[in-house]
Amino acid sequence: MQVTNLGPLGPIDVKKFPKAPTPSRGYRWVDDGSVRLVPIEMCRPDRKFDPNTLADDEDNFKKVLINMKNDVFDYAYEAGHATKEIDPETGEEYYELTSSRTRLRIFNYLNQGAYPIRLMELIPGHNSDTCAWMASFEADICHRPARHLTYQQIAQQLYDLMQRKIAWYEGQTCNFIDNELVYGLDEFNHWYWEVAKVDRKYDADMSKKIWNKVQSGFITTEKINTKSSLEIKTEFMESKVIRHRENEVKVNVISMDNPQANAPSNIFPILRERNSDKKTVFCLYTTKSKTASEVLTTRKLWKDSIISKVSEIATFFLDGEVPERYLDSAKEDKVKLFFDNVEVWSYNHLETEKEMVRIAV
Q1: Using CA of residue 334, residue 338, residue 340, residue 344, what is the dihedral sign?
Q2: What is the DSSP letter of 63?
Q3: Can you tell me the mean pLDDT for 90-96?
Q4: Domains of the chain, earliest start first
Q5: HSE, side-chain direction, 13 A CA sphere, residue 170
Q6: Would you state the pLDDT for residue 176?
Q7: Which residues pair with 322 in a beta bridge?
Q8: Is this model's pTM higher than 0.70 or not?
Q9: Is the preceding peptide bond at 39 cis, omega within 30 degrees of 0?
Q10: Fewest CB within 10 A of the end CB: N or C in the chain?
Q11: Tens digits of per-residue pLDDT, 284-317?
């Protein structure tokens, strides 16, 4: 298949890329790691071991896109590291990228016909899952451009590997009784300081944060989607939740980030509209959450915070006006009445959420 080096980013000269770095653990370079251009339609990102918990990292995508469109092609950006694979369903060959997944998306977005990669292969005797995970993680913290992973994102990946019984690193300790992998503090510290060398990019206290989060676990380890408020509003207005009653509701698309401080601020807009013919509908979204657990926690905190504040206000006005024995039931009635003309939904951030998510208030 003929490959052109031309496209919106200009001609790409593979000879201008620097010498290949040391290959990731368990891999060796094909043709000494020299960069080659391959048809972009043959490239697929490896999502199975992507340390990033965002299915589509819109912020990183836009940041890198702007840099690539405004500057000349930067050969300091490390070429994608890839292995040649065969699709079990079609029998077709393709290149699976363990790095530079965002740039691959940008090349596709710009219709650049070919993508620069360094081809590598797994050395026989090495564990493909563990090596693929470490290759992806190494790229995320060391390659240029590199995204900044939060400690929650790193912890979620380690926790997910533990649940799937995949080693954090090759040679990880196994229990001599049942030969099961051991995921203890010693194993974590060895991975953190000696194998992944996470301290190259993060502060020293990062290791404790990651370890504590791994120990506390995650409600779910699925990936999430984040989008701009404009994109979310467009999707919400076109969803089956709203599209057939657009004239019957007043929609408010609001951030649920920092919920304990921000959720109560929506009380007064609700009060202003409580006698309106239109139902007040909130669509909550987050830009700060980086994991599915954070999304679920933020939703709950937003709901609990606004209900708590309404209950507090109801208590203030009912105190002394209602006999003590009836206070709780009267307060409950007032809270229900307050939310009687209100609906709360959340954008479907989690990959398994196919529709907008209703939040009961």
Answers
A1: negative
A2: H
A3: 97
A4: 1-124 (3.90.1530.10), 150-218 (no CATH), 225-359 (no CATH)
A5: 16
A6: 87
A7: 319
A8: yes
A9: no
A10: N
A11: 999 999 999 999 999 999 999 999 999 999 998 8
